[in-house]
Amino acid sequence: MQVVKPGKILINNEWCESQSGKRFDVINPATELKLTDVAEGDAADIARAVKAARQAFESGPWKTMSARERGRILNRVALLLDKHKEEIAELETLNNGKPIHETRNADLPLSIETFEYYGGLADKIHGDTIPVNGNFFNYTLREPAGVVGQIIPWNFPLLMAAWKLGPALATGCTVVLKPAEQTPLTALRLGEILLEAGLPAGVVNIVPGFGPTAGAALVTHPEVDKIAFTGSTEVGKTVMQLASSHLKRVSLELGGKAPNIVFADSDIDAAVNGAMRGIFFNQGEVCCAGSRLFLEERIHDEFLSKLKTRVEKMVVGNPLDPQTQMGAQVSEEQFRKILGYVEKGKKEGAKVVTGGSPAQATGYFVKPTILEGVNNEMTVAREEIFGPVVCAIPFKNHDHLVHQANDTVYGLSAGIWTRDIGKAHRLAKEIKAGTIWVNCYNCFDAASPFGGFKQSGFGRELGKYALELYTQVKSVWVSLD
Ligand code: NAI
Ligand code: MG
To answer: Which of 67, 137, 249, 408 could make a disulfide contact with 226, Cβ separation 3.0–4.6 Å?
Structure first.
C-alpha cells in the first residue's frame, strides 16, 4: 500500500535517520505482519530536536508571526487532513487495528475539528487589565510556555497528536512530539501535512522511539519547559518524577476505571447501546471506557440478557471492512494482558457471560466480553484492563452505588443512565471524575474539556481550558506618575 512508506524523524522541517542508524518494525495487529519500519530516535535525536525547537521558539518567523497567522496555519492543517482523510483513516486502521468505520467517523473528524478549533482560538488568547491600588496601570500577558515535550499513546495516535499540537501551536509554543512505538505512522503523516501547511522550521519536531530512551530523554532534557503526557498511570508517575529535576510543568492524562451506571428507571435499550459504546468502542482501548457497569439490582438480569444478545451479534474482524464493529487489539502484549485479566477475573469468582477468548486464530482479536458476578474489590474491577471486557456489578441503592463508583484510584469519566433528571444532576456532582455523560457515553468535542481527577491525572485538554497548559501569565506594572 502506497501510504505505508519508511518513516523517518522530523527535525527542523527535514526528514532524517536516527543518529544511531537504528530502525524498528511497525506491525499490523490484524495480521501480525510487518507494515514498515521507522527510524528509532533516542537521546541524541531528542537533543537535536529540542535544539531545533528552542531555536524556533527564541528566534525566527514563529516568534514574530501574528497569532492570526498561526491560526491560519492550523486551519490549513485541518483542510489538508480533510483532503487526505480517507488515506489517513486507512493508515490509522492498518497500524492500530481499529475498525475503518471508527477511523472515518471518529478519529479523523475529531482530529480535523481540533485543528479547526485551535486555529480559530489562536487570536483570542489574551490577558486582562486589573484595577490595582495606587497610580498604576496593571495588565497581564498570556505568554507561551516555551518548548513543549509531548508524549502520546497508541490508542488514538492521530487524535492524541491533534489534542496535543492544536493548543500548543495556537499559543505559540514549539514542540517535540514522541508518538507511541506501536503506532508512529499517522503522526509522521501529520508531519508531512504540517510542512505542506507552511509551518516554519523547528516548530514541530517528531521523534518516533521507545519510552525509556526517547521518552525519558525528552522528559529530562533541561531545555524543555513543559511536558504533556498521555498514557499509563504507572509511566505518568515516572514522568512526574523525572520532570521534577528541572521543575518542568507537567500535565498528565492517565488511566481510568469508569463507572457506567444504569438505573431501573432508564430507557433500557438506550442504556444497552450506551454500555456497548462505553466498552467496545476502539476495542476497549480507551482511557475513559465504561469498564465497570453498575446495574440497579432489579434490572440486572434483564439488562445482561439484552446486552448478551447484542454483543453476540457484533461483527469482529478485518478492520478495513466497513461492516466491522470491533477490530484487533494494538499489540500482542495488550492482547495477552486482556486475556490474562479475564483468567484472573474467573479465578476471583467472576463468571463469563460471553466472550473471554481470542476471536480469530491470527491477529490480536479478542471477543467482546461480559463478566458478571463481579464485586468492586476484584482485580478486574480495580485495574485498567484496556480491552473489550465489561464488568457487571449490581447495586442496591444510591449510597451503595456512590460509594462503589468512587471507590477507585481513578477519576476520568462516568456514565449515568436514568430518566430522573434531578437524580442525574445530583449524581453528576457526587461522582469524582473529569467528565460525566448523562444518557450518553464517549461523547467528544474539541470545545469541551477532558481530563482526570485523582490518579487519572491533572490538567484539562481541549477547549479553552487547554490554553492553561501551554501558557504562562505575566503581570506588568506601569507607573502612571
Ligand atoms: P505507556 O504509558 O508505557 O506508553 C504511553 C507513552 O509513554 C508511549 O509513547 C511510551 O513510549 C511512553 N513511555 C513509556 N515509558 C516511558 C518513560 N519511562 N518515559 C517517558 N515516556 C515513556 O503505555 P503502554 O505500556 O503502551 O500500555 C500499558 C497500559 O497503559 C495499557 O494497558 C493501558 O492500561 C494504559 N494506557 C493508557 C492510555 C490512556 O489513554 N490513558 C493509553 C495507553 C496505555
Ligand atoms: Mg509501557
So the answer is: 249
